[in-house]
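Appendix B. One record, verbatim.
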Amino acid sequence: MALKELFDLHGKIALITGGSRGLGLQIAEALGEYGAVVVLTARKQNELDEARAHLAGQGIQAHVYAHDLSDFESIDRTVEKIVAEVGPIDILVNNAGATWGAATTEHPFEAWQKVMNVNVNGLFLVTQSVLKRSMVPRQSGRIINIASVAGLQGNDPRMAATLAYNTSKGAVVNLTRALAAEFAAQGITVNSICPGYFPTKMTKGTLAYGEQAILEHTPMRRLGTDADLGGLALLLASDASAYITGQNIAVDGGITSV
């Protein structure tokens, strides 16, 4: 098979949680450019509508479903609806996430639960649902979890404390390894992307607080851009990565190398 054919996603359906903006939309652009039909979920319908129009302007077919990942009881229903209306899911990108900044001694338990419910519990439940309803019956699939460099290391003490976020992303890192081992023999690969600092709505507060410290600690001396994540996402979603599973790959300008 020609190399360019390995990256071809025509005929594939990709579900991207939290796909209406930020890194999720960047990934949707990359997968859609190579032929995938993208399905976006997010909490706000207006942002989903804007994302769909944005993608349509690039010639990318997108379906959108308003959904709150922390509403656990609705996850199966949403996945069932997507499969019935769009088709079986070939690629799952677990991108939706939440964060909270607070010193550990002052961290509200309710905020801890919110972060865990979206970043770990919701991710698990949507993955379980997609596995049962699409990937296991077809013995194929690509799962891409969006973890973080925060799941690979502790915080620089100059930064705002984010214990719940770091803990949740550490859980995603090892969930990726465990899932990969469990489903490898069934033609399903599971990998994670661990972004460094990208300017998004979620990182706005962090960057306002400590962008200079971040840049000083980043060997490339810059933040991530709209062009820095799509290539890896495409690789992990395509047949070009058929022998790659259980990996947690940092896209961070070198932060985790020092």
